[in-house]
């Protein structure tokens, strides 16, 4: 076997593997610049998939079923506690917060819209939009929040120029707000391939919405009248009462909205906000049990009790690194330390990228040992002149 070709060949494979790993490292570094799990928007501690909190003198956070949550101060943007804040999950109807944030600046509430067949055919929760019936944009926004009407979401999208342009506008608004975990496929939040958001992004949407007086008006409305089907000539059009589905608004002191959500795949999602003693907090929860509003309420309770002493673990809508937080979850502590190190030392090669290098390195080492043993054995059996040539070749 021609040993002089085997070693260079294996070395070439190692070089190729190292080059591939370097490319992967460069790609990872480029991705980090846009905000990823390795270098997330809001600060390095938010890279954790566990619970992140820095409040040593506070009581323990409530035990929640939520797979992901964020508790934040809406005025300062400081995040007081989180679990898997950038986890990409199905948003269900909490995505309607982004729908409203996108469309409120574009639509005059007094505009009259004639409903289309596709609006009335929307799946899931509905307010009862009737094809060819007329509604004001104000009616439709009330239905969007109080009844979580998917037919109202479709109608508002079409009033703004169509579902496709509205979806494009929602994705653009998400990028503008720094909500990099969100990908929109429809304006209602119904489960769709590729549609997801995060607890962090939902908090961003709530903050943007609550800065608007019209948004605050809609999310704090408890009941309203909605137009029924078009009447016969000479008859008055009847209306019916619609009521909010937001139990936090009905049961929590100081509540100011914001939005419920539920599908069988997303399970419970909820965005809840409240104001007490001059402080406004938002608690977003995703993938909970049935009573998602109560988990949001439990986080708000903890926040109002401990906000004065809690240190922020991140910020809303800012990519600047923040001080790493103390963590109550073992995995979260490791994640926060790794994220902080990554932000100070620059992008590092992910651990899995070393696997091909290490495997090929082991193969080369084993192959080299076998080849050297064969050469030494042949050298011992060869005539004296051949032994001198063999020794010379091993040194070169």
Largest sheet: 7 strands, antiparallel
> Judging by the overall fold, what is the CATH architecture of the largest domain?
3-Layer(aba) Sandwich
CATH topology of the largest domain, anyone?
Beta-lactamase
Using only C-alpha atoms, the radius of gyration works out to 29 Å
Order of helices and strands: HEEEHEHEHHHHHEEHEEEHEHHH
Rounded to the nearest angstrom, the distance between the terminal CA atoms is 18 Å
Number of strands: 11
Shape: globular
Structural class: alpha+beta
What do these coordinates show?
The chain is an alpha+beta fold. It is 43% helix and 16% strand. It has 13 helices and eleven strands. It has helices spanning 3-32, 96-103, 117-120, 137-146, 150-159, 163-177, 199-210, 213-219, 247-251, 292-306, 330-345, 355-381, 384-395; strands spanning 51-53, 68-73, 78-83, 112-114, 134-136, 223-227, 239-243, 255-263, 267-276, 279-288, 314-315. Strands 1, 2, 3, 8, 9, 10 and 11 form a seven-stranded antiparallel sheet that branches. It has a two-stranded antiparallel sheet with strand order 4-5. It has a two-stranded antiparallel ribbon with strand order 6-7. Strand 9 and strand 10 form a beta hairpin.
């Amino acid at each position: 076997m021609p040993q002089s070709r085997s070693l260079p060949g294996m070395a070439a494979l190692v070089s190729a593997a190292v080059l591939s790993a370097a490319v992967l490292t460069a790609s990872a570094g480029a991705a980090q610049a846009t905000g990823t799990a390795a270098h997330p928007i809001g600060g390095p501690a938010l890279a954790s998939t566990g619970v992140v909190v820095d409040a040593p003198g506070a009581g323990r956070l409530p035990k929640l079923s939520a797979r992901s949550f964020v508790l934040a101060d809406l005025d300062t943007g400081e995040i007081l506690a989180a679990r898997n804040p950038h986890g990409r999950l199905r948003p269900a109807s909490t995505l309607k917060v982004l729908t409203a944030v996108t469309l409120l600046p574009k639509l005059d509430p007094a505009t009259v819209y004639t409903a289309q067949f596709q609006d009335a055919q929307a799946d899931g929760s509905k307010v009862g939009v009737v094809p060819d019936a007329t509604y004001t944009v104000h009616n439709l926004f009330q239905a969007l929040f109080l009844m979580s009407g998917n037919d109202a979401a479709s109608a508002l999208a079409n009033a703004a120029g169509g579902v496709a342009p509205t979806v494009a506008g929602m994705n653009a608004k998400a990028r503008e707000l720094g909500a990099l975990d969100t990908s929109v496929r429809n304006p209602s939040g119904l489960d769709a391939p590729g549609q997801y958001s995060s607890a962090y992004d939902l908090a961003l949407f709530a903050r943007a919405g609550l800065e608007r007086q019209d948004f605050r008006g809609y999310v704090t409305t408890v009941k309203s009248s909605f137009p029924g089907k078009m009447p016969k000539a000479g008859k008055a059009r009847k209306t019916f009462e619609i009521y909010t589905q937001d139990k936090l608004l009905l049961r929590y002191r100081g509540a100011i909205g914001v939005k419920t959500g539920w599908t069988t795949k997303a399970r419970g999602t909820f965005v809840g906000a409240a104001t007490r003693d001059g402080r406004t907090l938002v608690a977003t929860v995703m993938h909970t049990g049935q009573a998602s509003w109560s988990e949001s309420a439990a986080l708000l309770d903890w926040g109002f009790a401990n906000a004065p002493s809690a240190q922020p673990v991140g910020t809303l809508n800012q990519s600047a690194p923040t001080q790493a937080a103390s963590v109550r979850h073992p995995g979260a502590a490791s994640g926060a330390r790794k994220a902080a190190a990554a932000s100070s030392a620059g992008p590092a090669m992910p651990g899995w990228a070393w696997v091909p290098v290490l495997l090929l390195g082991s193969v080369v080492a084993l192959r080299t040992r076998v080849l050297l043993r064969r050469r030494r054995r042949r050298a011992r059996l060869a005539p004296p002149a051949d032994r001198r040539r063999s020794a010379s070749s091993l040194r070169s």
